Amino acid sequence: MGAAFATQIRHSNRWGLYQISSFFRTFAPPFNSDYFDRTIIILPMQEDLFKRLVSHCKEYGFIYPSSEVYDGLNGVYDYGPMGVELKNNIKEYWWRSMVQMHENITGIDSAIFMHPLIWKASGHVDAFNDPLVDNKDSKKRYRADVLVEGEIDKMIAKADKEVDKAAKRFGETFDEKLYRETNPRVLEYTQKAEATEKRLANALKNNDMADLKALIEELEIADPDTGSRNWTEVRQFNLMFSTQMSNIGGDDGKLYLRPETAQGIFVNFSNVQKTTRQKIPFGIAQIGKAFRNEIVARQFIFRMREFEQMEMQFFVRPGTEMEWYNTWKARRMAWHRAVTPAEKLRFKDHDNLAHYANAAVDVQFEFPFGFKELEGIHSRTDFDLGSHSQLSGKKMQYFDPELNEHYTPYVVETSVGCDRMVLSVLSNALVEETVPDAQGEDSSRTVLRVHPALAPVKCAVLPLLKNKDELVEKAREVYDKLKFHFICQYDEKDAVGRRYRRQDAIGTPYCVTIDFETLENNTVTIRERDSMEQVRVPITEVAKIVGDKTDMRKLLEMLA
Ligand code: GAP
C-alpha cells in the first residue's frame, strides 16, 4: 500500500541487507511436516545467498529480467519455464486451499480495467501515495520514508554493534537485557531510533511532507549513490498507473491498472452472493495481476511494478469480524508453515491502521534481506462495500434471514503476493551442500529443496547411456507413460551424475534411471533428491510412487 494510504507501519530491516545469509544454514523442519523431517548441516556458500539466488533463477530458467535484450525494464520480470511451473503450483496450492477446501468460498476472475470511480470510492485516487524526494545534483529519485528508515536501521545496527562488542568482552556472564537497558551509548542509539520511527509514522499519518523533509535534513541524510544532501521538497506520488480509453476523452476516459485485485471482489459482492446463494459468512477468492508505480522497485521480485496477488475477502456479520480475523490469521499461518520452516515466519501487527481497517497484521518471512511482509491480513470493516454503495447509488447489503435484517457485511481480507511467495520458497529452498560422489569423495552440489508438491518438474527420466538404442527406446517408453501423470523431463545428455545435478538444481524430487537391468526385468531405479537414496522398483509402480509423493493432496491434508 502507499505510505499515506495505508499508514502502514514500516518494518525496518533490523538486520541489514544480506546479513542473514549466514555461513552455516540448518535446514530445520517446518511445523507439522514429515517431508522436512530431517536436519542437515549446509556448508558455507561461497557467494552471498541473495546474489546466488538471482543468478540461479536466471541460469535455470526460473526468472529473467523483462525485456533483457533492451537492457531490461526496472521492477518488471518474466517467469521462465521452471518459474512458471513453480508459480502455477503455488497458485494451485492457494486456490485449492481456499476454494476447494471451503464450501463457503468461491472464486472469480475480474477484469484488470475497472470503472474509474471504483478507485475514487476505494480511496486510491486521493491517497494511494508514497512520499517522493529528488536529489537535485544526482537527479536520483527516492522514497523519503525509505531514506529515513535506512537511518533508523543504522542507529539500531550501531546499538547492536555495541552489544556484540560487550558480549565478547564479558563472555558468559554477559546480561544482554541489562546492558541494553543501562548502557548510555546503546540507550542513546535505541532511543533516537524509536523517536525517529515515531516521528516518521506521525508524518506519514498526518500527510506532513514538510516534517519528512525536516527529518531528512536533521538526520543529514545523503544520497546513497553520490553523498549529495541537496534535496527537493518531499511530495506525494500516486502509485497507480493510468491509461486512456480510446472512445472517451479527458478524465472521464482515464483508466487505472488495478493496484489491488480486492476491488474486483467488492464490486462483485452482490453478483456472487446472488448467483451462489451463499449465506454469511462466505468468501470470494481471486488470483490476478496488480500494478503499482513503485518509486523504487528493488530486491528482485520482492517489490515489482507488475505483480500478482492471491486475495480472499471474507464477508461476515458486523461484530464477528475479530473472531474471523483470528481464525484467518491461524489458517493462513498454517498454510505457510506447511511449506516453510516455522522459525522463518512470524506475525507483525500494524501499529498504525489504514483508514478502512480495525485490525491488521502481516505474515513476515525471513527473506535473505531480513524479515519482510509476505502476506497482509486485514479486518477491513464495511468501508469498501459502504463506499461503493454510496458512490454508485447501488446498495451492497445482505439480508440476514437469522436476524431478519439488512446490513453491510464486514470484511476480513487475506492478501498474499504470489511473486513474494515464489521468492520465499526459492530463498528457503536453495542450498549448497557437500555430498559424497560416486567414489565416496566430497563433492558439492546445489540443490533446490522445494516441497515436492510445488516442484516445477516432478520426475526426470534418464537412460543410463545415450548411445545404447535399447536404453533410449525404453526410457522414451517410460517417459511417454509418465507424462500423462505429472510434469516430467527426459534427459540423455552428459554423464548420469551431471544429469542428477541438473535436476537437483531445479528441485526435481525424483529421477528414474533406465539401465541394463531394466532391459532384463522391467525395473528402474528411483533416486530421491534430498537423500540421494536409490531404490529399484518395477516400471509399473513408478507413476504411483512419484504421484503419491508429489501429490498436492498431502499438503492440503496438513491444513485440515
Ligand atoms: N488488498 C490489500 C493489499 O493489496 P498490500 O499489503 O498492499 O494489501 C498485499 O498487498 C500483498 O501483495 C503484500 O503482502 C505483498 O505480498 C504483495 N505486494 C504488494 N506490493 C507488491 C509489489 N510492489 N511487488 C510484489 N508484491 C507486492
Short description:
This protein has 19 helices and 25 strands. The chain has 560 residues and is an alpha+beta fold. Helix 3 (81-100) crosses helix 14, helix 6 runs antiparallel to helix 8 (184-205) and helix 8 runs antiparallel to helix 9.
List its salient traits.
560 residues; alpha+beta; BirA Bifunctional Protein, domain 2; Herpes Virus-1; 5-stranded mixed sheet; 19 helices; 38% helix; binds glycyl-adenosine-5'-phosphate
Structural category is alpha+beta
Count of helix runs: 19
CATH superfamily membership of the largest domain = Bira Bifunctional Protein, Domain 2
CATH class of the largest domain: Alpha Beta
Q: How many extended strands?
A: 25
Task: Please mark out the parts with pLDDT under 50 across 5 or more consecutive residues, or reply none.
Answer: 1-47
Any idea what the radius of gyration is? 26 Å
Distance between the termini: 32 Å
CATH-assigned fold name of the largest domain: BirA Bifunctional Protein, domain 2
**Overall structural domain count:** 4
Morphology: globular
Could you describe the largest sheet, including whether it forms a barrel?
A: 7 strands, mixed
What average pLDDT do the residues reach? 90
- Strand portion, in percent? 15-25%
Strands in their spatial order, largest beta sheet: 5-11-12-18-15-14-13
